[in-house]
Design a protein that fits this description.
- This protein is α+β, with helices and mostly antiparallel strands.
- It has a domain of 74 residues: Nucleic acid-binding proteins (OB fold (Dihydrolipoamide Acetyltransferase, E2P), Beta Barrel).
- Helices cover 35% and strands 27% of the residues.
- The chain contains four helices and five strands.
- It has a five-stranded mixed beta barrel with strand order 1-2-3-5-4.
- The chain starts with 8 loop residues before the first helix and ends with a strand.
- The relative contact order is 0.10.
- Belongs to the universal ribosomal protein uS17 family.
- One of its GO terms (molecular function) is structural constituent of ribosome.
- InterPro entries: NA-bd_OB-fold, Ribosomal_uS17, Ribosomal_uS17_bact/chlr, Ribosomal_uS17_CS.
Length: 170
């Protein structure tokens, strides 16, 4: 007898441990496949196709693609959400501000205020930016709190439009 044919009890023990480890790994992989299959089923909504396919035949690669499409961004208004999802555009910026001028026809001037911490002194400083927005029905008064949304250029300085009046001036 040679050494290659005869295994010592320690070598047999290691082979049994490796076999048990292999069973644990295959069990974990089967559970992962089942989880992926249920995720695909919930995203795609095709319950019949996923139930008929066995877990070993389910391809897990397409599971990542629908998740990217399923991530919905909150948007400012309902109509814009539908337009953005159909055309594949990014969500438009919205800002809340106070109307500081409404003297122009169908146009308002909105002051957007933000607070920044000074990099050296640590004191909070107010920064104000005035934006020109389109007000189709001339409903805004000076002092109103409004929400405006980014849009295509309407004139030289007008790139925003009124979405809603959040709070009327008193």
């Amino acid at each position: 007898m040679s050494n290659e044919e005869k295994n010592t009890p320690e070598q047999e023990q290691t082979q049994e441990d490796q076999g048990g480890l292999l069973n644990k790994i295959t069990h974990a992989v089967d559970e992962a496949i089942d989880t992926a299959a249920s995720a695909v089923e919930s995203v795609t909504g095709s319950g019949e196709d996923a139930k008929e396919a066995s877990p070993s035949t389910v391809d897990t690669a397409p599971a990542s693609a629908p998740k990217k499409q399923a991530a919905a961004k909150p948007s400012a208004s309902k109509g814009d959400e539908e337009t953005a999802t159909k055309s594949g555009r990014n969500e438009r910026k919205t800002r809340d501000g106070v109307v500081v001028s409404n003297k122009m026809d169908k146009t308002i001037s909105v002051a957007i205020e933000r607070r920044l911490q000074h990099p050296i002194y640590g004191k909070y400083v107010k920064k104000t930016k005035k934006l020109i927005a389109h007000d189709e029905s001339n409903v805004c008064q000076i002092g109103d709190l409004v929400r405006i949304m980014e849009c295509r250029p309407l004139s030289r300085r007008k790139r925003w439009r009124l979405i809603s009046v959040l709070e009327q001036a008193k």
